[in-house]
Amino acid sequence: MDYNLFLFILVVISSCCCVKCDNIINDFLSVPTTVKAQENNTVLLPCYLNTASNDGNFITAIRWYKDENLVVDSADEQLPLPEGHILWENGSLEIFRVTPNDTGIYICEIVRPEPWSPVRQRHAIEVLHPPSVEPFPPTGFLQVKLGEEVRMSCKGSGVPYPIITWYTKGEEIKLLNPRELLKFTASDRQMAGIYECRAANGVGEPASAQIELNIIYPPELMTSRSWIHTAPGHRVQLECKISADPQATVTWTKGDMPVPLDSRVLSLVDGDKYTLLIKNVQKSDFGIYTCKAINELGQGELQIQLSGVPNPGVFKKTDDKNINSKDSYTLIWEVDSYTPIIEYNLWFQPYKPKTGLSKPNWTKLTIPTEHSSGPVYSKSYTIKGLKEKTVYEALLVSRNRYGWSKPSPILRFATAGADLKEEMITPVQHHTEDNIIPLDLSSSSQNCKLGNVGFMVLVIVTMYYHFHC
Ligand SMILES: *[C@@H]1O[C@H](CO)[C@@H](O)[C@H](O)[C@H]1NC(C)=O
Ligand SMILES: *[C@@H]1O[C@H](CO)[C@@H](O)[C@H](O)[C@H]1NC(C)=O
Ligand SMILES: *[C@@H]1O[C@H](CO)[C@@H](O)[C@H](O)[C@H]1NC(C)=O
Ligand SMILES: *[C@@H]1O[C@H](CO)[C@@H](O)[C@H](O)[C@H]1NC(C)=O
């Protein structure tokens, strides 16, 4: 068929239609209405023509359509009137005792003899109905992997259509539209829990449904102590706290080998706490242990060192003006060790606020021990020949038969006349490269074994995520 001709016909037909449409609207006396009704009410839908355009008794039939289905036809004797429906002479449709099923679009059609075309008018009934909700997933249970997208929804019904509101952990979740769908990324395990949707439309009681969200994740490991001081004959516990969903399989290794378990070395589990218990420590037990956890989503591990060297020392507060003069300062410290301390190394230098340019200039003092018994060794020492009105910093390492301890936290102190500001007092941990200063000097000192001390952070938690999508 010729395309242009086709278009032409189309234009002609549609313009004819439009003319007719205009007529249709003018023909009606009744106006389109939307009736909001309570259940069991009686509803009257009008369908009156303008008497002028009706022009006598030209009407051949009156039809009513509900949601595009013919339900009433005055010309068709066979078509039974639905229960509770009455078609009045004047064209009105009356419905008694409406139910929610009566909600819909109603079209009244008046059929006239040729050449008049039928005319139509649109009405609607809304039978108010309390809300209800249907959750998705319908089981009310949803499981996702950590980091995945969560999609849950609540399909509401009721007349008028209800407004859906979401709650979790007692708080409303602010949502943009569409409100039926709740969508977010499960970036945090804390997002797991009960999600509730409530549907309200002002008719009757609001309805609600709950969806429980479960987030599965690869193992996460924690330990309270990643470095444990011990000595032969002692009893020691290596602890690894593991959370994982699904539950993880946990193994203990030392070096690359699984830790041999027997009546002396036991692996214990209490809830999420995994413990390696060594009842009677032997020197061969010293070393780095790895606690490794695996589940379907990944694995993680954490290292715990068992060592015989002393615990890092701790300086005690000595801000007593009587013992500290303008050129000397008395330091007091404590070191825990199950085996006797052989000697201390005390390092000190004038404190310079970090400018980044000044080179460290530590002075090392080797301090012998006195005869005292452990496990707590305390000692005091007076550094002499200090500059007056100067802030200094000091740190301590100590040695027993198993080697040198890790350095103590850095202590800052001032000789008489200098002001020790608050920010200088806070204990300095050995986190940054800057503080690993004694290592720089280890070569300049014959008996300094600081190089053997592990400054590295011993907890290395490696998480391997291998989501199988
Ligand atoms: C409507 O009528 C039925 C039957 O009498 C009754 O069971 C129902 O509760 C009524 N509904 C309302 C909303 O009044
Ligand atoms: C149409 O008929 C019904 C039933 O007799 C009546 O209630 C209604 O008022 C009538 N409407 C008009 C416009 O006459
Ligand atoms: C509503 O319609 C459905 C299906 O058409 C029917 O099963 C149900 O009984 C009806 N309910 C009422 C109150 O008429
Ligand atoms: C380092 O300290 C010593 C004394 O403790 C001093 O004689 C020397 O000049 C200092 N060196 C630098 C570069 O500050």
Can you characterise this structure?
The chain is mainly β and 469 residues long. It is 8% helix and 44% strand. The protein has four domains: 20-129, Immunoglobulin-like; 137-217, Immunoglobulins (Immunoglobulin-like), CATH 2.60.40; 223-307, Sandwich (Immunoglobulin-like), CATH 2.60.40; 314-466, Sandwich (Immunoglobulin-like). The chain has helices at residues 3-27, 51-54, 422-425, 437-441, and strands at 34-37, 43-45, 61-66, 69-73, 85-87, 93-95, 104-111, 119-127, 129-136, 141-145, 149-159, 163-168, 171-173, 181-185, 193-200, 207-222, 227-229, 236-245, 249-254, 257-258, 265-270, 273-278, 287-295, 298-307, 314-316, 329-336, 343-350, 363-368, 376-383, 391-400, 403-404, 411-414, 464-465. Strands 10, 12, 13, 15, 16, 18, 21 and 22 form an eight-stranded mixed beta sheet that branches. Strands 17, 19, 20, 23, 24 and 33 form a six-stranded mixed beta sheet that branches. A five-stranded mixed beta sheet has the order 1-8-7-3-4. Strand 7 and strand 8 form a beta hairpin. The protein is elongated, with a radius of gyration of 43 Å. One 2-acetamido-2-deoxy-beta-D-glucopyranose binds next to loops.
Sequence-ordered SSE layout with sheet pairings:
Layout: H1 3-27, E1 34-37, E2 43-45, H2 51-54, E3 61-66, E4 69-73, E5 85-87, E6 93-95, E7 104-111, E8 119-127, E9 129-136, E10 141-145, E11 149-159, E12 163-168, E13 171-173, E14 181-185, E15 193-200, E16 207-222, E17 227-229, E18 236-245, E19 249-254, E20 257-258, E21 265-270, E22 273-278, E23 287-295, E24 298-307, E25 314-316, E26 329-336, E27 343-350, E28 363-368, E29 376-383, E30 391-400, E31 403-404, E32 411-414, H3 422-425, H4 437-441, E33 464-465
Parallel strand pairs: 1-8, 10-16, 17-24
Antiparallel strand pairs: 2-6, 3-4, 3-7, 5-6, 7-8, 9-11, 11-14, 12-13, 12-15, 15-16, 16-18, 18-22, 19-20, 19-23, 21-22, 23-24, 24-33, 25-26, 26-29, 27-28, 27-30, 30-31, 30-32
One 2-acetamido-2-deoxy-beta-D-glucopyranose (NAG) binds at residues 99, 101.
